[in-house]
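Thread: Newbie trying to understand structure tokens

Hi all, I'm a second-year student working on a class project, and my supervisor (Dr. K.) asked me to get a predicted structure for one chain before our next meeting. I've only ever worked with sequences, so writing a 3D structure as a token string is new to me. If someone could post the tokens and maybe explain what I'm looking at, I'd be very grateful. Here's the chain:
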Amino acid sequence: MENTAITQPDVADTVIPDSAQDASLRSMAEAGVFYGRKKSRTHPGMKEYIFATRNGIEIIDLEKTQAALDAAAEAVRACVAGGGLVVFVGTHPGSKERTEAIAKRFKLPYVVTRWLGGTLTNFKIISRRIDHFKKLREDIASGALDKYTKAERLGFQKEFNRLEKFLGGLEHLTRLPDMLITTNIEEHATAVREATRIKIPVVAITGTISNPATIRYSIPANDNGKASIEYLLTVLEGAIEKGMSERKAPEVVGPVKTFEKAPFKRPA
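---
Reply by user tm_fold:
Sure, no problem. This is what the structure looks like when written as tokens:
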């Protein structure tokens, strides 16, 4: 681990400015959000977010992290409040559990195993596979496949298990998402590239070795530590919760009609 060269006692004097009154800065410091990677690996675009260097390890400016996090959280809130669909991507060991928990809580699509190339750029094909997966699940649960032989049912079960591994988290991806949230740009490069290609805004935790210019809402922070990732995801979770509470219920006038919310308009 690159960040083990700095110990927690350094936090108060090194990471938190004397003028800081915000308790969230100390919470971020305690979660290790300030940890960067080796100075020799720092991307030029991240230099403006570096507060100091200790033992060859970059220390991220938490005041700038806080400002970026606030902007990202507001963008997430606005997207969700407007009826936007958010997809989470977190295959990194330190992000899987929290990513899945948040997505399941709000019934949002997520990927915590492996991003399938073309999930966004070839959505028509992927959506058909998702529909097939859901239909297969229904058929297994209802007993509709009992008419087949034991060998055939075993084949269906194996297919279902394989699809569940890669598509289980995408059952709520009923259309192209309006925003993508990810925890590590390098490990999720394909997902970020697809979203960028079709102009879907990306919210991402951006470590010191990554290029923040490729991300619409870049959050300069430790993208490798579990505590850091979980802290930042929890803030975004709060933004989603607030956005959900602000969604307007459809006005019903006269006979009840099926209401279809207009899709969230992505920012230019």
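A couple of things are worth pointing out once you decode it. Residues 3-9, 256-262 have pLDDT under 50 and may be disordered. The chain is about 40% helix and 10% strand. Feel free to ask follow-ups in this thread.
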